[in-house]
Design goal:
Structural class: alpha+beta
Number of helices: 73
Shape: flat
Strand content: 5-15%
Distance between the termini: 63 Å
Radius of gyration: 46 Å
Largest sheet: 6 strands, antiparallel
Number of strands: 32
Helix content: 40-55%
Length: about 1900
């Protein structure tokens, strides 16, 4: 039966089966089943077209499938968009509308929604995603688009049963068919790539079937609900999928099922064998143990494939196992999977096939169905462990990771769903278990501390799992679900989970251990630290921040207590495991202490937000002392690394030090570490803490009063920087308030100020640099609401500016003056600098501010800032400032600095003063008991008795016993003169020792560890006086003051000091000021002043001001100190130090003076250099400044009677340019089409942003001239050359190629920097460039080079013609010669053979170079832009090209002047113009041509000739009538072909004659714009005036005559077709006619005036816009000056006819009328000329970049009809092109390069749509120019990474346009590279 159905028509079969199935007898269902057995037979190919067609027809039930789809869509009840996209899709995210931070919208929904003014961005999806529009659990309803805002399922009718009936029967079989083939095609992938290819092949075969299912999901809610029922129904699955299926092919089905069971076996997290071992281990291990190191040889295996050793060098044998916590309640996490429905098995195979994109899209397309979403989420969680196990083994883990997250982010972002699966499916337990399982595979033994007895295991950062970030999807999901409060709450309540999590975190504790290399440089620099920092941030810190967001209120106190308790337990286990006692192992450091950081951050949150008591959360003192060790070790190691002590470990160790403090890591690393150390400092004994700091920094031995010492731990060169590091660390520790009481706003402000003080920042850089909660899923960053407000409070915005060099600046934020004045905090800057140079940069900027505002003029010290009050819980921190150990250190350092001991620096003094001042600002309330206790010892000569710094400042230390080398200068064989006797000195020493012993015995010994450290510390004080502590084992070591290989013996001596800290401060004041007795307490003059003066007014200044401020504070705090200061200052002489110090002070003074003088000299030199550089920049680089002086003014007229002198910039010699040794101008020749893109309209064309808008190129100057030359060539004589070689002259007839100019497109523009060089010097220079091995950005082989002086890009040298300046002598045009005489002289000169100085016969070096440069000019452009004649390369083509080069350069200069000459003068452009030299070169070549007298236009211009009989021979075309010819072209031809040097009177004569022709053309053109009636009226009125005198200068007479003459040829009838008559809508008045004629003539007058200016050197006068015509006419000698000022001035007054005007005009008109018959339809186009063009400009761009992006980024290419990967737009003509597109390549040229040649003759300006940047192509090179679209903060967004709205910056666009018009891309943009035709 089925077979017969197969042969029938599909639609009719489907219709009949549907009818059968609707009956109740079940026969139809049976028939359908049989048919499906045949259609979906496993033997058939899975997705052949026939199968798909049958499925579609059967589901449609007799309808066409498309109609069926439409009908089903009509019942779509879905309210969500749910559009699924893949990687690289452009989507949007609106933070204003989003509830979940993962929310995203498709472009259609975003643009249809209301998001104006919202905080949104556009982004390119990395992993794929789905549109959330309509989902109120993810985003606010106000953000829904119009389609989904009002979409409800209530008004959708119910689906009729018969419509979906067939689908319900067919779909289960279709899905079964898919699953059977998935089973059948699967083979376990191994190392054999063939297996992977088989899997790919299977997937390809199934693609059409999966596409069918995908199409079904797009039919809407009705079809999705059917699919959901099929996929989730247990019974359907059971009936169809069990192994004993009776559907025909039993053998196949059985084999198929067995394959499935085999694949299932590996789906458990742990194999059955491993589970038995694990249970044994569970019983063996104690509950508190974190790790178990392979109990037996066989227990360490993860999988049979993982048995190889991990890392032989670590000596660890098998991989280690971690004990999985017993809290994993449900063993199903570990078990093999069991499937109960199609959905579960489908997901299983999706995982097995490593998430094929089609399958992922199908599964996600179903998500709008809510019941499916719940079922799918549960299924996903069920398979979660299996997914991660597959991911670890995958070869394509990156792709798979993206696809996993693509799915999981859709499921876990919904809080309700996440909570449900957490409760019902144990999601949290699964995730933590899988994370532990994942990390187990890469554990190694830790080598931290006690290597042999260390039982701790850490992750190996070199493993692919960590190196490739394979754990990322799992951690990302974990962070995502912890962002939901209900889930996080469950996690924090489950102690078993917390225990497991701490076990997991401990794997990262102490990873990536660094051991300092002491002997040789490390061979291989490991880069594993990237992986280590990423792992700690992502796997430990981000979940921590997620949990912290839910511990903000008092109600959550218990959670914090629990986490803190587990942290402490884990830390205790860690200390035990690494066998830590009290001292850290030397020369090793790890930057990874996540357990310490968890503890610190939860502690901070507890005190700050939950008001918990700190002491209740702290461990005992011994634990605190242990916890302090490793963070302190990191701080000391940072200092060591910056001191270059780890240099043998390579650059990677510096990389670690920088990453540790970098903005993305500091919040999770250095900040918690400093906070933990602050807690330890506040609770531990301060002397112990301070001694520990100096011991860790290895500077104990340095802290001695002796001038020489031995340091067992440090080399001498490292001592200074380590001491600076130790003191800076103490200052940071005591100053920083980030976790000690600052609010979020204060922290944000401090961070912002620190970053802005280092450098001005862009908005995005600042956002990036401000440390923030690094958990991206935790919602809005704390404080981001206030970011903009805070930024505007602390910074001023500097709008983007444009430097003369052309570099593009971005919008910057710079600190306000008040910030520098009151908030600049160098301590915060030091903490946040990644590079040490940034600290210096901040100080330089601070100095600049002080100098600018006049607050302080010399070099300032870092300003001291008073600190915010501490949270009461941390008050104990200030005890550090009031402990004897610190005071002894401060006293010793002050003494050493005053005595100029080695390794003391200004920075050390600065930090010492900072600490003293901090102590004075944080004085303790001294109790009476303390006064009593030390009362008896008040007068004894010893170290300090109390701990209060205010008391200890005035305490005098008389003698100190020191141990020092015998070679030290202090060692005396006799008792020192200052000591009364030996006895007394020793008594003093012993008394001191007794006092200290008594003090020591009175100290309560809390812990043995403390007592041991204190005891050792006190012993060292007794023995070594000034030092704080000393390391136990002192290795003797050669010091720099001893002979080689000898160790000096240490001896004990007593130094007489007799100083207090106050006396040392005053002494230092004298020293710094360079004057004796420089400090005098001013309150002695005014006793009230101490109470009135605020010391903080003196905040800005150097060390002198800092000391004065401290002394003032000291006097204010204590009467005793005030008296001491007065007493010290009253002493006539300063304190007498040991003998050495007098010379030392003097030496220091001299040194300081020398330094000061050197500084002044340096400043002077720098200022001189800066002014030189400035003047050079003005002369050589500033292309726009009219006032700038030029290095060499070409053709200077300063020496009237001598030759022009040129300076060679290579050899430096000066002299004239000669025939034999010519000098040349450095020039750049480039092809230009700028003028060709001019349009008639003054409004720029808009860039099309819709299909309706188009740009048509017909109205451009280039197109108009092309059409004109084509028309002329069609009807007139072309290339009528007769060559005569006599005397090397080429004689030619006139042709249409001499009637126009070319070069509007592809003409050659010549520009110079103004510098000259000898041509032979240039050749040597080029040779040296060729031999230079340095990679250059230009091609020397193409003749390119940079000017040796100004480095401007160039590619040729233009020879300077030897000339006498007298040739340009001032000559008045108004002389006695008549016009006719001059005309005759011009004609005679044209007939002469030529007396040109450089004859082509005498070949000189100059003529050779002129020929050479002419070749360069020709080769600068493409051949198609030169050859316009019918015979390419013919002489007339050359002739045309040469005068067109002159025309182009004149026209371009006019454009650069703004299109008119109203400004007059010689602008910067003219000053650096090379037109004079260029005209000489062109003239030399054009003089080789001689126009045959029979065809000479001069004859026809100046006298009546017999009109040639046109059309005698049919094949002979007529000559071009004069009225058709371009007058400017005629001018250049006549001037450049004059055989001799042109005199000004002859030039004026030529201009006058040509003006007559121009005027006639103007009037002719005008006559065509009149209506018939107007023509008749003007014709009659003009006739009446013909008899008047001067009638030949009356425009009315001339107009009337021209109308008469042209009417004879019936030309006006031909023109009345409508094209011209449109212009004639106005009524013409005499004024409008005069204006029109002047406008027609102005372009010629401008060009001619410029030519005269360059030929004869007269400056152009300036004028008003309305006076321009008269001014130019007068300048050219067409008009007497008296007439110019006449109000009735008329353009016809400039006419000067050589013969009767009307006769000459009649002759010219006759030429037109006699030839008009052959081209009557074109006569109007040829006769009616419009020489006016607006200035060239680029296309007008829309204000918002999104307008361009949305239209063009998905637009298909016009050539290949594909959407380009990198679309680009030409900003000159608007053409859409493919950048780098291989599809549009033509003859190895990619489309952009090809277009740049066609559109810009080698110059292209392209906007890259997907990057928002502009790329410039210039010849064979290209460069990135920047962007003209900026965000609201004035920043570019290259590659649209930030996706913020971008707006057009019109200033930047003007700069781009200016560079295009002035051809300065090569000079201004520096970063050029070759494009190899690949763009």
């Amino acid at each position: 039966m089925a077979a017969s159905l197969l042969g029938r028509d599909k639609r009719s079969t489907a219709a009949s089966l549907k009818a059968e199935c609707s009956r109740q007898d079940g026969r139809g269902v049976q028939l359908l089943g049989e048919l499906l057995d045949s259609v979906l037979s496993p033997e058939r190919a899975v997705a052949e077209a026939e199968v798909i067609e049958w499925c579609k027809s059967l589901m449609a039930g007799g309808e066409s499938f498309d109609d069926f789809c439409k009908m089903v869509r009509g019942y779509d009840n879905a309210t969500l968009c749910g559009l699924v996209w893949t990687a690289n899709f452009v989507a949007y995210r609106c933070r204003t509308c989003g509830i979940s931070p993962c929310m995203s919208l498709c472009a259609e929904c975003f643009n249809a929604g209301e998001h104006t003014g919202h905080d949104f961005n556009m982004f390119r999806s990395q992993a794929g995603g789905a549109c959330d529009c309509g989902d109120s659990s993810v985003m606010r309803e106000s953000g829904f688009c119009k389609r989904h805002r009002f979409a409800t399922s209530s008004n959708i009718p119910c689906v009729p049963n018969e419509l979906m009936m067939m689908s319900e029967h067919i779909l289960p079989r279709v899905i079964l068919h898919l699953i059977q083939h998935l089973r059948d095609g699967y083979n376990e992938p191994d190392s054999d790539p063939a297996t992977e290819r088989d899997l790919q092949k299977t997937l390809q075969q199934m693609e059409p079937l999966i596409s069918l299912l995908e199409d079904l999901t797009k039919m809407g809610g009705a079809m999705r609900s059917i699919l959901t029922r099929v996929l989730t129904n247990h019974q359907i699955y059971k009936d169809l999928c069990s192994g004993d299926l009776c559907t025909g092919e039993k053998a196949y089905t059985k084999k198929n099922y067995e394959k499935y069971l085999t694949a299932l076996k590996g789906s458990g997290l742990v194999s059955s064998e491993e589970r038995s071992v694990t249970s044994v281990l569970d019983q063996m291990a104690g509950a508190s143990n974190v790790t178990i190191l392979g109990a037996t040889a066989g227990t360490g295996q993860m999988d049979s494939s993982d048995e190889e050793e991990q890392d032989g060098s670590q000596g660890v044998g098998k991989r280690k196992r971690v004990k999985l916590s017993n809290s994993t309640k449900d063993s199903s996490i570990m078990d093999i999977l069991k499937h109960k429905c199609f959905l579960e098995e489908l997901l299983f195979w999706t995982v097995k096939y490593e998430f094929p994109q089609k399958m992922v899209t199908f599964l996600l397309n179903m998500l709008p169905d809510q019941s499916y979403k719940i079922a799918f989420t549960k299924t996903f969680v069920q398979h979660y462990a299996f997914i991660m196990k597959t991911l670890i083994k995958s070869h394509e883990s990156d792709t798979m990771s993206n696809r996993i997250v693509h799915i999981s982010v859709q499921l876990f972002s919904n809080e309700e769903l996440a909570r449900q699966v957490t409760e019902e499916c144990q999601l949290l337990e699964i995730m933590v278990t899988v994370l532990l399982y994942m990390m187990e595979s890469c554990l190694i033994k830790s080598e931290l501390q006690d290597e042999e007895n260390n039982f701790h295991v850490v992750v190996n950062c070199g493993e692919p799992l960590l190196k490739n970030n394979t754990y990322w999807p799992l951690v990302s999901d974990f962070i995502n679900i912890l962002s939901h409060q209900s889930v996080a709450k469950r996690f924090l309540e489950d102690q078993g989970l917390l225990q497991m999590w701490m076990n997991f975190v401990s794997f990262f504790q102490g990873m990536n251990l660094n051991k300092r290399e002491l002997n040789e440089h490390v061979e291989f620099e490991s880069q594993t630290y990237y992986a280590a920092f990423a792992a700690e941030l992502e796997a430990c810190a981000q979940p921590m921040w997620g949990l912290l967001t839910h511990c903000k209120i008092r109600e959550t106190q218990e959670y914090t207590r629990t986490v803190v308790r587990y942290c402490l337990d884990a830390l205790q286990d860690w200390f035990d495991a690494i066998n830590f006692v009290d001292e850290p192992a030397p020369n090793q450091v790890t930057f990874h202490l996540p357990l310490h950081r968890y503890y610190a951050m939860f502690l901070s949150k507890a005190i700050r937000c939950q008001q918990l008591d700190l002491d209740s959360l702290l461990p005992d003192q011994e634990m605190l002392m242990k916890m302090m060790v490793h963070p302190l070790q990191i701080q000391a190691s940072l200092s060591e690394i910056h001191s270059n002590m780890w240099v043998r470990n390579g650059l990677q160790i510096k990389g670690q030090a920088m990453t540790y403090v970098q903005s993305h890591f500091c919040n999770s690393m250095i900040d918690p570490d400093i906070f933990l150390l602050q807690i330890c400092a506040s609770r531990l004994d301060p002397d112990y803490f301070v001694s520990s700091v100096f011991e860790r920094f290895k500077v104990v031995d340095l802290l001695t009063m002796a001038s020489q010492h031995q340091n067992a731990a440090l080399d001498t060169e490292h001592e200074r920087s380590m001491l600076e590091g130790a003191l800076t660390f103490l200052v940071i520790l005591l100053s920083l308030r980030i976790h000690l009481g600052m609010t979020d706003d204060e922290i944000l402000r401090a961070e912002m100020v620190a970053q802005l003080c280092m450098s001005d920042r862009t908005h995005s850089t600042l956002l990036d640099l401000i440390p923030e909660n690094p958990n991206p899923k935790s919602g809005i960053i704390p404080g981001s609401y206030y970011f903009e407000t805070m930024l505007s409070a602390v910074a001023d915005f500097k709008a983007p500016v444009f430097e003369p060099g052309g570099s593009m600046q971005q919008g910057m934020y710079t600190p306000k003056a008040d910030v520098w004045n009151q908030e600049f905090d160098p301590i915060m800057v030091i903490l946040r600098t990644v590079y040490r140079r940034d600290v210096q940069s901040a100080m330089d900027r601070y100095m600049g501010f002080l100098k600018q505002t006049g607050k302080f003029t010399s070099t300032p010290w870092p300003p001291y800032r008073e600190r915010a009050p501490l949270n009461p819980s941390y008050k104990g921190l200030m005890r550090i400032l009031h402990c004897k150990t610190l005071h002894i250190v401060l006293f010793t350092l002050l003494y050493k600095i005053s005595m100029d001991h080695q390794n003391m620096s200004e920075h050390v003094l600065c930090m010492v003063l900072y600490l003293i001042e901090l102590g004075l600002d944080n004085l303790p309330e001294e109790t009476a008991e303390e006064e009593e206790m030390f009362g008896e010892e008040r007068c004894s000569d010893s170290w300090f008795h109390g701990t209060n710094i205010a008391t200890n400042l005035h305490h005098i230390i008389n003698y100190v016993r020191v141990r020092l080398p015998e070679t030290a200068p202090e060692v005396t064989r006799e008792p020192p003169a200052s000591t009364s006797s030996d006895t007394s000195s020793f008594i003093q020493g012993s008394r001191r020792a007794t006092a200290l012993t008594r003090e020591n015995s009175n100290t309560a010994q809390v812990f043995s560890l403390v007592a041991e450290r204190r005891k050792k510390f006190q012993e060292i004080i007794n023995r070594n006086s000034g030092s704080a502590i000393q390391t136990a084992a002192v290795r003797p070591k050669t010091s720099k003051w001893t002979a080689p290989n000898s160790t000096p013996q240490l001896t004990t001596t007593i130094l007489e000091i007799r100083e207090s800290m106050l006396s040392l401060l005053i002494k230092l004041h004298h020293k710094l000021s360079g004057k004796q007795n420089s400090y005098y307490p001013f309150w002695l003059e005014d006793s009230e002043s101490t109470s009135t003066l605020d010391p903080m007014q003196q905040i800005h200044g150097d060390g002198i001001i800092a000391i004065e401020r401290i002394l003032l504070k000291t006097a204010a705090r204590s009467r005793q100190n005030k008296c001491s200061i007065e007493e010290i200052c009253r002493k006539v002489a300063p304190p007498v130090p040991p003998k050495k110090s007098n010379s030392a002070d003097k030496k220091a003074l001299d040194k300081e003076e020398r330094r000061q003088k050197a500084r002044e000299r340096q400043q002077k030199l720098l200022a001189e250099f800066a002014s030189r550089q400035k003047s050079f920049m003005e002369t050589a680089m500033d292309l726009e400044s009219p006032d700038s002086d030029v290095a060499m003014d070409v053709g200077s007229t300063e020496q009237p009677d001598s030759e022009t002198v040129y300076d060679c910039v290579i050899c430096g010699q000066s002299g004239p340019s000669t025939e034999e040794r010519p000098t040349g101008l450095v020039v750049l020749l480039q092809a230009s089409s700028v003028l060709g893109h001019r349009r008639r309209s003054t409004e720029p064309k808009k860039l099309p942003t819709s299909d309706e808008e188009q740009i048509y190129p017909e109205d451009t100057c280039g197109t108009a001239h092309d059409v004109r030359i084509t028309d002329l060539q069609q009807y007139f004589k072309d290339a009528g050359f007769g060559l005569k070689w006599a005397l090397m002259k080429i004689k030619f007839q006139s042709s249409c190629l001499q009637s126009v100019s070319i070069g509007w497109e592809g003409g050659v523009y010549v520009q110079t920097c103004g510098h000259t060089l000898h041509i032979d010097c240039h050749k040597s220079y080029m040779e040296s460039l060729r031999n230079d091995q340095v990679l250059q950005s230009f091609s020397v082989d193409k003749g390119e080079f940079t000017c040796p002086l100004c480095r401007q890009f160039a590619n040729s040298v233009l020879p300077c013609h030897p000339e006498k300046s007298e040739e340009k002598s001032i000559w008045s045009p108004y002389n006695s010669k008549s016009l006719l005489t001059l005309i005759k002289e011009v004609e005679e000169q044209q007939e002469q053979l030529g007396m040109f100085p450089v004859s082509i016969c005498s070949i000189t070096n100059l003529s050779k170079e002129m020929e050479s440069v002419m070749k360069d000019i020709r080769s600068a452009t493409q051949k198609k832009y030169i050859d316009y004649g019918k015979t390419p390369g013919s002489p007339d083509n050359d002739f045309l090209f040469m005068y067109s080069v002159a025309r182009l350069n004149l026209e371009l200069e006019l454009v650069h002047r703004g299109g008119n000459l109203c400004l007059g003068g010689a602008s910067a452009t003219t000053k650096r113009s090379c037109l004079n030299q260029l005209l000489h070169v062109l003239a030399m070549h054009m003089r080789l041509f001689r126009i045959d007298s029979a065809y000479n236009p001069w004859t026809r211009l100046t006298r009546l000739t017999q009109v040639m009989d046109y059309g005698i021979c049919d094949d002979e075309k007529p000559e071009v009538p004069l009225l058709y010819r371009d007058v400017s072209s005629l001018l250049l031809i006549l001037v450049l072909t004059m055989p001799q040097e042109l005199h000004k009177e002859h030039f004026t004569c030529i201009v006058k004659v040509l003006y007559n022709l121009l005027y006639t053309q103007a009037v002719s053109t005008l006559s065509f714009q009149f209506s018939e009636e107007e023509r008749a009226a003007w014709k009659n009125s003009g006739k009446l005036k013909q008899t008047m005198c001067n009638s030949d200068k009356s425009w009315e007479v001339l107009l009337s005559h021209i109308i008469c003459e042209l009417s004879k040829g019936r030309l006006y009838n031909a023109s009345n077709t409508g094209q011209v008559s449109m212009l004639g809508t106005n009524v013409w008045s005499p004024q409008s006619i005069e204006y029109s004629i002047q406008q027609f003539c102005l372009p010629f007058l401008r060009t001619t005036s410029l030519l005269q200016h360059h030929l004869f050197g007269n400056d152009l006068p300036s004028c008003q816009r309305t006076e321009e015509f008269g001014m130019l006419a007068s300048y050219l000698g067409l008009l007497l000056p008296c007439l110019q000022s006449n109000d009735e001035f008329c353009s016809s007054a400039c006419l000067d006819w050589p013969i009767a005007a009307l006769d000459l005009i009649s002759q010219w008109c006759l030429e037109v009328t006699t030839s008009a018959e052959s081209h009557s339809e074109q006569v109007t186009n040829l006769l009616v000329q419009d020489p006016q063009w607006s200035l060239p400009c680029l296309l007008q761009l829309p204000e918002n970049y999104n307008t361009i992006f949305q239209y063009y980024h998905r637009k298909a290419c016009v050539h290949c009809s594909k959407v380009p990967k990198d679309p680009a737009l030409c900003l000159v003509c608007g053409t859409f092109v493919c950048l780098k597109g291989q599809c549009c390549k033509q003859q190895s040229y990619c489309e952009c390069v090809l277009h740049s040649q066609n559109c810009g003759a080698g110059t292209g300006i392209f906007l890259l749509i997907n990057a928002s940047v502009i790329i410039i192509i210039r010849g064979h090179r290209f460069c990135l120019w920047g962007s003209v679209y900026l965000d609201t903060h004035g920043e570019e967004d290259r590659d649209l990474r930030r996706g913020k709205p971008l707006y057009l910056c019109s200033e930047r666009y003007k700069v781009l346009e200016q560079q295009w018009v002035t051809h300065t891309f090569d000079h201004i943009n520096k970063r050029w590279g070759p494009h190899y035709n690949g763009l």
